[in-house]
Amino acid sequence: MRIPTAASDFFAFLFSFGKKRSAVEKRAHLESLIGYHFRDPSLLSLALTHKSKVPPEDKMGLKSNERLEFLGDAVLNCCITEHLYFKYPQKSEGQLSKIKSLIVSGKILAQISDTIGFGSYLLLGHGEDDSGGRRKTSILSNTFESILGAVYLDGGLHPARGFLVRFLFGRIDEFLQEKSNYNYKSKILEVSQRDGFGIPQYKVLSTSGPEHCKVFTVQILIDDVPMGEGSGHSKKRAQQIAAKRAIEKYSKSHITAHYKGELHDELVSDGRAADDHRNGQGSSGQEDTAGT
């Protein structure tokens, strides 16, 4: 069966590296890695098209994989929530939320995409490709979701769930046991709320680098007390690093002392102002004297 021209052109470009297999054979190889055969190959083509590759006139990115990523994210959340509900019948809603937060994190999805080899199939603009886009966490995690969205559109919920069973569900215990997958934002949130400091705030201090390779520097504040900074190619990554620094230096007494110190300074300042007023040295006292 002849695949559509758009998909044919895509795969012809994608695999034009001196290999002699036909575009159909190469597409079949990619589908074998995914574990799903597309009835509409153009969906797979779209799922692998990064926004850096779309023409300039497509300012909304409609020819990129962003819309499929949006759909795939929703499918992922639906399926993982159901799976965790039945996998862990003895865990509370809060515990399930923490597990879900880790499992659907960009780091985990990018790790799976890298293992499958999605990076080598991506269609990127030259700038993004030259800057190492095929290994970027954000791009790989988004690709996982866009391919999931494409599978869902092409075949429905059953094959989409099968895709997740094959690549994600079977590795949940492994991911949970791996310390490097620790969700520092969730942990610092838990600790901060436990000690009565509320929700930590994340402030973007700076953004640098070209559009396709930005670096964000973020600061975390707990009860308005700076607790650490982190930098990364995405705000989420920078926040995780900042949260990790905050956990490493976290001290309830330090935050409380900082607050008490500010309060002490305010009380001292107010006290001095009152003394000055009684001694006729305050600005209001001088004005009153001048007015009589």
What key phrases describe this protein's structure?
Ribonuclease iii, N-terminal Endonuclease Domain, Chain A; disordered C terminus; 2 domains; three-stranded antiparallel sheet; 292 residues; 14 helices; 8% strand; Double Stranded RNA Binding Domain; mainly alpha
Indicate the topology.
Elements: H1 5-14, H2 23-34, H3 41-47, H4 66-87, H5 93-103, H6 106-116, H7 126-130, H8 137-155, H9 157-167, H10 172-177, H11 184-194, E1 201-208, E2 215-222, E3 225-232, H12 235-249, H13 252-278, H14 283-291
Antiparallel strand pairs: 1-2, 2-3
Helix pairs in contact: 1-3, 3-8, 4-5, 4-8, 4-9, 6-8, 8-9, 11-12
Secondary-structure-derived class: mainly alpha
Please describe the biggest sheet, giving its number of strands, its sense, and whether it closes into a barrel: 3 strands, antiparallel
N-to-C series of helices and strands: HHHHHHHHHHHEEEHHH
CATH class of the largest domain: Mainly Alpha
Low-pLDDT runs: 1-9, 15-20, 281-292
Strand order of the largest sheet: 1-2-3
User: What percentage of the residues does DSSP assign to strands (E)?
Assistant: 5-15%
**Overall geometric form:** globular
- The assigned CATH architecture of the largest domain is Orthogonal Bundle
Number of domains: 2
